[in-house]
Design a protein that fits this description.
This protein has ten helices and no strands. By secondary structure, it is mostly helical.
Length: about 200
């Protein structure tokens, strides 16, 4: 069987497994092992266990699981809503303070979870309804949360930075330090824009 035919079968098999509802990681791994079993020497399967062990032995990659677990735990609890409520109480007398509170809450949650989707989910579930109730437009409210959520990939401990450090063999500590300055700059710019937009429209 030619390489073109094998490639076509591989692509079709991958799509079938993914469309069956299997998680993407398991679909890709399963189809790769199946094709290695049928179309490669038996000794090639030894590399599967070897690579799995080497990756699982990486302390850097193992930290991702803990950050994901922490982000999921915080997202399911009231920690995100309580964090948002506390910052809102401090800034409610500032013009546009509600929007600024959302930006700061996103930044603090991002620094705890390291994930942009988790940040948007945890802060947005409390922040967007509150902003809508206070007269903020739907686009403005959603935009503040979406912009604040992007801080999750920039502020340490960023899961994206961890993956990049492993793939590019770069210093994770230096990457984290490099993200602090731009992250804080974006927090300030987002907060300034939220206050300016509020004064302009309201």
């Amino acid at each position: 069987m030619g390489t073109g035919m094998i490639g076509a079968l591989y692509g079709c098999g991958t799509l079938i497994l993914m469309f069956s509802g299997m998680p993407i990681a398991f679909a890709l791994g399963s189809i790769a092992v199946i094709f290695m079993f049928f179309f490669m020497p038996a000794s090639s399967l030894d590399t599967v266990t070897q690579n799995v062990y080497e990756e699982m032995a990486s302390i850097t990659l193992l930290s991702i699981l803990l950050f994901i677990l922490k982000g999921a735990a915080i997202g399911k609890s009231r920690a995100g809503a309580d964090l948002y409520s506390a910052i809102h109480a401090w800034m409610q007398k500032i013009p546009g303070g509600l929007g600024i509170a959302n930006v700061f809450a996103c930044a603090l949650f991002a620094a705890m979870a390291g994930s942009s989707p988790a940040t948007c989910s945890a802060i947005g579930s409390a922040g967007i309804p509150e902003m809508r109730a206070r007269g903020y437009s739907p686009g403005f409210a959603a935009g503040i949360i979406a912009a604040g959520g992007t801080l999750g990939i920039l502020l340490p401990p960023s899961i994206t930075m961890i993956l990049f450090a492993v793939a590019a063999e770069q210093s994770l500590g230096r990457l984290f330090l490099a993200g602090v300055g731009p992250g804080l700059l974006l927090v300030g710019l987002f907060a300034f824009y939220a206050a300016w937009r509020y004064k302009k429209e309201y």
